[in-house]
């Protein structure tokens, strides 16, 4: 039995049975041993929002860092925002830098100028744009959180967490 619909399947996009089986074998081989993603499609009710996905990844990294650096990390707020502020983007452009993936900020409280708040802010959209897939996103988020925490602690990122820099593009 032949499944050939068109004698020139590449021109029209039609598949032969052999092409379909080779494609499915290749897909199975590419997914072997990897997490296959969410069960629900992204737009289905109940599927996690992209903001939630980035926040969950960030909190996994922060929890791991708290196991080692808990006391030094107390008082640091960890936040995920959608995009950097216009001021951050303008600063990056004026310095010839790319869009920031996150920032470490220190803000003095208005009521008590002696007291300051330290914030690690991640920017979801630039992180998602930089990532190839969700697995890669997890590595990028981990590296950015580790880099920003290392700024506050004045410790090299490699000393903060041994997984720093071990992602797919390093």
TrEMBL record:
Residues 1-28 are annotated as: Disordered. Residues 14-24 have a biased composition (Polar residues). This is Metallopeptidase family protein.
